[in-house]
Amino acid sequence: MKCLLVLSALTFVVLLAGSTKGEKRYSRKLTETVDGCLAFFDKTRDDLEHVIMNDTLDESSEFPAKMTLCVFRSFGIFDDEDRFSKIALVNYLSNEMFPEASKKDPKIAEAAASLADKCEPIVEASDKPALENAKILVNCLLAHKNEYDKVGKPVDSMYDVDAVSNHPLVPSK
């Protein structure tokens, strides 16, 4: 079994592999942000690929959660004082994860808002530090991932390791 618990923190950052009808997936800003966070942690795309592909990943590693928090902070989902922003989450999910599709299909923004509505009270109720709240948020998003399925997005492919190799954030071999 893949290390889904540990990898879940990276899921909404880098594992939504595949696209519909060849549309461009992810914004340039998201790709640049992931690269910036990798540089901040003195990691490379090869390191990220290793985390994604390694079956024996050390589950005590905080790298996936730190990467996720770094990306979330870059998009204002968590601010410098570790406060959560539902508006920033909606913008991130609709405009950064699916930039081209969201321009064509308003249901994507509706699905993003629905996800944020479900996850906001869970994150807001937590008194844990931002690193833990990033994990809580990702787990909530994963628990309600069917919101994107309703608008035809291939979210179920997020655990498809073969699809990950075609992802723009993973270096080509």
From TrEMBL:
Name recorded for this polypeptide: Uncharacterized protein LOC113213865 isoform X2
Superkingdom of the source species: Eukaryota
Originating species: Frankliniella occidentalis
Gene3D superfamilies: Pheromone/general odorant binding protein domain (1.10.238.20)
Source lineage: Eukaryota, Metazoa, Ecdysozoa, Arthropoda, Hexapoda
Gene that encodes it: LOC113213865
Signal peptide: 1-22
Keyword entries, A-Z: Signal
GO molecular function terms attached to this record: odorant binding
